[in-house]
Write a structure and sequence with these properties.
The chain has 20 helices and no strands. The chain is an all-alpha fold. The protein has three domains: 178 residues, MFS general substrate transporter like domains (Growth Hormone, Chain: A), CATH 1.20.1250; 166 residues; 78 residues, Winged helix-like DNA-binding domain superfamily/Winged helix DNA-binding domain (Arc Repressor Mutant, subunit A, Orthogonal Bundle). It is globular. The protein starts with a helix and ends in a 6-residue tail after the last helix. The relative contact order is 0.12.
């Protein structure tokens, strides 16, 4: 029998396969609109806006895990119903169907944040995020091959079948209340607001290039239908698999710079190379490989942040909506460039300009993101150290004023990943007293949050 984590991953993978193959820039949708000689730009734009709205607003009315299962099942059911009109030549219903399916698919994705937190242990969330992205893209490839090489209607049927199978997996999940572990960490929410905002800004800027890719690079190689139908997401999947299996101690932040170089290489290659098969393999490998690096980076960071909020649907939805907004803005820029008659090379120059702006912003953004990322990696690393090594780290770190004995005890438990409530139980003191000690510790180390405290202290592990 499948455990809850596997049920959750499977259910979300099939849901996301539907979104990727049809609803959000999906090849099934493009094939159907092309079959009816309908201009796809307006339909794609409205579907993306609706999906963004669903991600961004889901947390306003889904505030407990008890409501998540119903939200996801109802949302997936509405997506299924809203997709049916595409079997018929009824353009008047297509726009409404895309808006409905876009909004409720966005809500279902955001709501899954509750399940990610409830059923996947904190140290395995990067693997769960990688799994859903890999599985959903493999399913998408299968649907795309059928839609682009056989029949868009068969592709549409398979896309809807993914939705049905996903709903079955979600229905099999236990609708149990949030466990104690989920509740006791919500007191740390204040420490992630600034990193979350910076992460969203970073995601938004980077994914502008994804939107330009959809509007500039993909159309330039649409004559390679057979190859594009199956190879398009292969580099993405390979990059995800590599990132998923990196050892815990690997410095994943360095891969961000590799990803930036790959994006630049993709657009430069697009400008310099032709439009044959080998050229496509080079451009697509660089571009989609970079997308895999960045997607797993921010998905896993958002997944770790879920322990710091009492509403995972809100945090997960807002985090992923930054991705959709970036794609949306990039798509609008691409469409504007196309409408003005700009050649693909000039639009690619626009993409390179966006990358240059991102490179300027990357160092300050990266400091905050790496701070948050390292704090999680360090928690695991600290927990694996011997008691004498842990004591040495605290002794070597400089403070503005010496810590009291009680503050040292509180600090040890903070570094072990304990919440204020857990620390209070361990030391037989009140939670308010723990908060008072924590504020004093922050002041003495001249930091403002647990993440910053952990990162500052554990630099001494490397002798910094």
């Amino acid at each position: 029998m499948l455990n809850s984590r596997r049920l959750s991953v499977n259910g979300f993978s099939f849901l996301f396969a539907y979104i990727l193959s049809f609803q959000f820039e999906g090849q099934v949708l493009y094939s159907l609109l092309d079959l009816h000689t309908v201009d796809a730009s307006t339909y794609i734009l409205m579907a993306s806006i609706a999906h963004f709205a669903g991600l961004f607003t889901c947390g306003l009315f889904v505030r407990s895990q008890a409501a998540v299962k119903n939200m996801m099942l109802v949302g997936m059911g509405l997506c299924l119903a809203a997709t049916i009109p595409f079997f018929f030549p009824l353009p008047v219903l297509w726009m409404g169907g895309l808006i409905i399916s876009g909004y409720f698919s966005g809500c279902a994705v955001a709501a899954w944040g509750f399940f990610l937190r409830a059923f996947t242990p904190k140290n395995k969330r990067i693997k769960s995020c990688a799994d859903v992205l890999i599985y959903s893209n493999l399913l998408m490839i299968a649907v795309n091959v059928v839609a682009m090489n056989r029949s868009p209607f068969i592709g549409l049927s398979l896309s809807m079948l993914c939705l049905v199978i996903g709903a079955v997996f979600i229905w099999m999940l236990p609708a149990e209340p949030e466990n104690e572990q989920n509740k006791i960490l919500s007191d740390k929410m204040g420490g992630i607001k600034n990193p979350l905002l910076l992460l969203c800004l970073f995601v938004f800027i980077i994914t502008i290039n994804s939107g330009l890719m959809y509007q500039v690079i993909n159309p330039a190689f649409e004559h390679l239908t057979g190859l594009v139908s199956w190879y398009w997401a292969v580099p993405y999947i390979v990059a995800l698999a590599i990132m998923r299996n990196l050892p815990m101690k690997a410095k994943r932040s360095r891969t961000l710079y590799v990803g930036m170089a790959m994006i630049m290489g993709a657009f430069i290659s697009f400008m310099l190379l032709g439009r044959n098969t080998s050229d496509y393999l080079i451009v697509d490998t660089l571009m989609l490989g970079a997308c895999g690096i960045f997607d797993l980076f921010w998905w896993s960071i958002i997944g770790e942040m879920l322990d710091y909020t009492d509403n995972p649907a809100q945090l997960f939805g807002i985090g992923l909506s930054a991705n959709v907004l970036g794609v949306l803005c990039g798509g609008v820029l691409g469409m504007a460039g196309t409408s003005m008659g700009l050649p693909g090379a000039e639009v690619a120059v626009l993409a390179l300009t966006v990358i240059c702006v991102t490179l300027i912003m990357l160092p300050p953004l990266n400091r905050q993101l790496v701070l948050l990322l390292k704090s999680h990696a360090y928690l695991a690393a600290y927990d694996n150290l011997g008691q004498s090594q842990q004591t040495d780290i605290i002794r070597q770190a400089k403070t503005l004023d010496p810590l009291t004995v009680r503050e040292q005890e509180v600090l040890q438990l903070i570094l072990s990943g304990k919440s204020n409530r857990e620390i209070a139980k361990n030391l037989f003191i009140s939670e308010n007293t723990v908060k008072t000690h924590a504020r004093s510790i922050f002041s003495k180390y001249d930091v403002s949050s647990r993440a910053e405290l952990i990162s500052t202290l554990l630099k001494y592990q490397a002798g910094e």
